[in-house]
Amino acid sequence: MRILLIAENISLHLSGETLLPHCYIEKFIERGEDVYVLCHERVRESLRDELTVEQFGKVRFVGDTHLQKALFRLGRYFPYRIEDLIFNQLIQLVTQWRMRRMARRMVAQFDIDVVFQPAPIAPRTISLMFALGAPVVIGPMSGGMNLPPAFRRMDGMFVRMAIGAARWGAGIMHWIFPGKLRAAALIVANEQTRTLLPWGYRGRVHQVMESAVDLDRWKARPDVPRDPDAPVAFIFCGRFVDWKGIRLLVHAFAPLARAGGAVLHLVGDGELYDEIAQQITREGLGRHVRLHGRLDRDRYQALLRQSDVYVTSSLRECGGMAMMEAMAVGLPVIGLKWGGAEQYSSPDCALLVNPVTQDMLISGLTEAMRRLTLSPALRRTMGLAARAHLEQAGHGWVAKADQVLAILDEAAQAENRASPRRAVKARQCPPSALPAAHGTVR
After folding, report:
1. CA-CA distance, 380 to 349, in Å (whole number)?
2. What superfamily would CATH give domain 2-212+396-426?
3. What are the strands of the beta sheet with 59-62, ordered from one edge?
4. Are 128 and 94 a contacting pair, CB within 8 Å?
5. What is the pLDDT of residues 381-398, one digit of tens each?
6. What's the Cα-to-Cα distance from 282 to each of 142, 149, 276, 279, 402, rounded to whole Å?
7. Less packed terminus of the chain by CB within 10 Å, N or C?
8. How confident is the model at residue 144 (pLDDT cuts 50, 70, 90)?
């Protein structure tokens, strides 16, 4: 197939959602598919380093307008959730509007069989990818999660009202920009996501989990005895934002730090980074809680392989890519019985805490960390089970890419049956028709 993959951000080095399209590109090419890409110019140099010269020549880029830059500056004056749900969505709409024009030209020029839009993953996000000249497949989508009931007040009344208004408004916007309504297929991660799809869609709905892990890249570490005198190393990786629950995690770890014999590695950055650093200093945990900031993949993987337990305190996590990477390496998991941690793990490899109240969550995390600190045998058994669970449940990228390719092929075949003229079109695009890699389709 000739596939046009459309995603604003594609990178191995940014957030988890930007990694998804990159993995699809990589696995589709490995299976012999002809992949064209349309994305934002902010990832140009990253993709130049990560793709072959031939594949980079099939990537097209779109830049920001003055309007988008103004919206970005304005959004900085509002709480993060409002900035993300309103201003960032408006910026994405402008980007998609410009990408849509480029996509129509690329579909015609390169005789594209199917258009694939794997990001953004939120089911309520508007898609402008319709009437492109080829069937469109969107997903896997996930998201739309609320905070656990005991933590709903983390979002102030103004934020909650803005979220409600944004979600209500999205229902109307889908009729103005009907990308998801007209898509040939929609892929959802679970039944909860299916219920959040816009009313009136007509494409077939498939269920495929949103997150996955490259089991070849994240190899299991050797099963060798750990130094019994070394402190037990817990590790967290993610954005430093309130709904990741990092403040709660530091509070929960404090009793273990004071008792000695354990260390907590915090990997990532974000708006709460300085606040967490101050919390660590204020509580006298500097010797036992180590802030690493953002690490490149190789340095993070090395730190992960030296750790003993992966811990996540996220209160609104639909996926779980960082957790799955830790599981692939062979680490047991401590997390919340809520969202992605519950969906992507199993009882034999994860200790999950029910977030009934803040105090119960903190005490539950403390007890789970203490339990694994005291039992090397349990850590080893759960770590071996973590890797096995990913393999047995089909959470590797190879299995996931094959599932999605089957859906793309079905959509392309259905289009060919509906349009006989398209089915018999010539399948070769002369090399001279391919624009230079540094340019854009105009």
Report:
1. 10
2. Glycogen Phosphorylase B; (3.40.50.2000)
3. 59-62, 34-40, 2-6, 114-117, 136-141, 185-188, 204-207
4. no
5. 999 999 999 999 888 899
6. 37, 29, 10, 5, 50
7. C
8. low
Tell me the per-residue pLDDT of 266-288, one tens digit each, with 9 for 90 and over.
Answer: 999 988 999 999 999 999 999 99
Q: Give the mean model confidence (pLDDT) for residues 325-341.
A: 91
Q: Kindly report the pTM of this predicted structure.
A: 0.79
> Using alpha carbons only, how large is the chain's radius of gyration in Å?
23
Describe the chain by its helix, strand, coil percentages, rounded to 5: 50, 15, 35
**pLDDT band, very low/low/confident/very high, at 351 (cuts 50, 70, 90):** very high
Distance between CA atoms of residues 139 and 199, nearest Å: 17
Report helix, strand or coil for 255.
helix
pLDDT mean across residues, the chain: 85
Closest CA to 85 of 11, 43, 128, 144: 144
The angle at the Cα of 345, spanning 390 to 269, to the nearest 5 degrees, equals 100
**Residue 22, H or E segment:** helix 16-30
* 2-212+396-426 and 232-392 have identical folds: yes
Distance (Å, whole) CA 51 – CA 2: 18
| Interval 47-83: pLDDT, tens | 998 899 999 999 999 988 778 778 778 877 777 666 6
C-alpha of 382 from chain center: 25
Name which of 236, 258, 267, 239 is nearest 249 in CA terms.
236
Considering only residues 311 and 161, tell me which one the structure prediction assigns the higher pLDDT: 311
Report the Cα–Cα distance between both ends of the chain, in Å, rounded.
Answer: 24
Q: Phi and psi for 167 in degrees, rounded to 5?
A: -70, -40
Domain range summary for the chain, segments of one domain joined by +: 2-212+396-426, 232-392
Nearest residue to 142 via CA among 88, 207, 228, 236: 207
Six-digit token string for 144? 């739309």
Which helix (DSSP H) or strand (DSSP E) does residue 34 occupy?
A: strand 34-40
| CA atoms 82, 83, 85, 90: torsion sign | positive
As its CATH architecture, domain 232-392 has 3-Layer(aba) Sandwich (3.40)
Question: How many residues are recorded in the chain?
Answer: 442
Residues 9-31 have a mean pLDDT of 85
**Cα distance between residue 390 and residue 346, in whole Å:** 10
- What whole-number distance in Å separates Cα of residue 2 and Cα of residue 106? 11
CA distance 72 to 95: 13
